[in-house]
Amino acid sequence: xxxxxxxxxxxxxxxxxxxxxxxxxxxxxxxxxxxxxxxxxxxxxxxxxxxxxxxxxxxxxxxxxxxxxxxxxxxxxxxxxxxxxxxxxxxxxxxxxxxxxxxxxxxxxxxxxxxxxxxxxxxxxxxxxxxxxxxxxxxxxxxxxxxxxxxxxxxxxxxxxxxxxxxxxxxxxxxxxxxxxxxxxxxxxxxxxxxxxxxxxxxxxxxxxxxxxxxxxxxxxxxxxxxxxxxxxxxxxxxxxxxxxxxxxxxxxxxxxxxxxxxxxxxxxxxxxxxxxxxxxxxxxxxxxxxxxxxxxxxxxxxxxxxxxxxxxxxxxxxxxxxxxxxxxxxxxxxxxxxxxxxxxxxxxxxxxxxxxxxxxxxxxxxxxxxxxxxxxxxxxxxxxxxxxxxxxxxxxxxxxxxxxxxxxxxxxxxxxxx
Length: 419
Description:
The protein is an alpha+beta fold. The protein folds into two domains: 3-205, CATH 3.30.830.10; 226-418, Cytochrome Bc1 Complex, Chain A, domain 1, CATH 3.30.830. Helix content is 46%, strand content 19%. The chain has helices at 44-52, 61-69, 95-107, 113-131, 134-146, 160-164, 168-178, 194-205, 251-262, 268-276, 307-323, 327-343, 348-362, 368-376, 380-391, 409-418; strands spanning 3-6, 12-17, 23-30, 55-56, 59-60, 74-79, 84-91, 184-190, 226-229, 235-242, 282-289, 294-302, 397-402. Strand 4 and strand 5 (59-60) form a beta hairpin. The longest helix has 19 residues, at 113-131. The mean pLDDT is 96.
């Protein structure tokens, strides 16, 4: 049974020993990300994640990776809108080294001016690559339409101009706020000892200075359309509707609605759009929940000539699912959702990340039994209610990227839903 400990400065610790493993996974997660950025600092959370790998504490960039890999380990990181995380996987016995390296990266990065100039150039290439990757760019277009004027509507990578404005001094001040201990969770799973993990966290993170907490700017799904003509072989479509926050009582009903809509090969969209009509070579639905809001999305790739028809099919299937869901269909969706959540627990890295995410979002750990019970409790009426919440505001954020004949799909989706 995992237990949570809280240090005096607010850092939380959770140990998840798993018998029979000769490896461990460590996650140091920080409950702030790109959503915390002002517009002139867009991309700084991601830039900082890059910079801490260039040198931290007594180690250079090369020494960081060599120290971890010499113990059979791997180190990685990720930046999202509301969370930044650093992960280490290693053989048993590698916890102390992993903790020391990550603590230096989070609390004592070097932030060398030459490295900063170089890394801004690297990220500029990453931004250009995303712009050249249609199935990345179309999501950026849809996100910008959904949350226009808010940090949630800006790319996590930022812009070349905004990241170029960072200096070592301003980035260090940003690090102290972004990585403040009140939103820091240390989580480890596998071949870990709870006492050792707690002692290491106290020694390495216990002196981190608290800062005044800052609340993110409130967000709301505002909706809009984005359509961009590109000389591509296929059209890429994203359709967004307003969703709900992670703490909303309808959270699992929303997840099941999305699962039934387009979560697998038996889902409505796959069977209708791909199998029966042959309008799409790829199609799926998903949900994203932030602190107080969220979105439901559908991604599809298709021939440009089929884009408008496909948009109408997606809208039609959303409306049909909003009206009724069959018992067998709901049971399949429940089984698929539970499987996706519980199969991931076979990965130590996923277990460590899940525990950290639960503490940051819910303030406590959720047991698998509790999650299963919440999923099983969802009724067809619950799906109908959550569908009403998605459609009630009469807002959408469709995005289309591809040949000109496909661009009409954005308006077609909204009109088919709302007239």
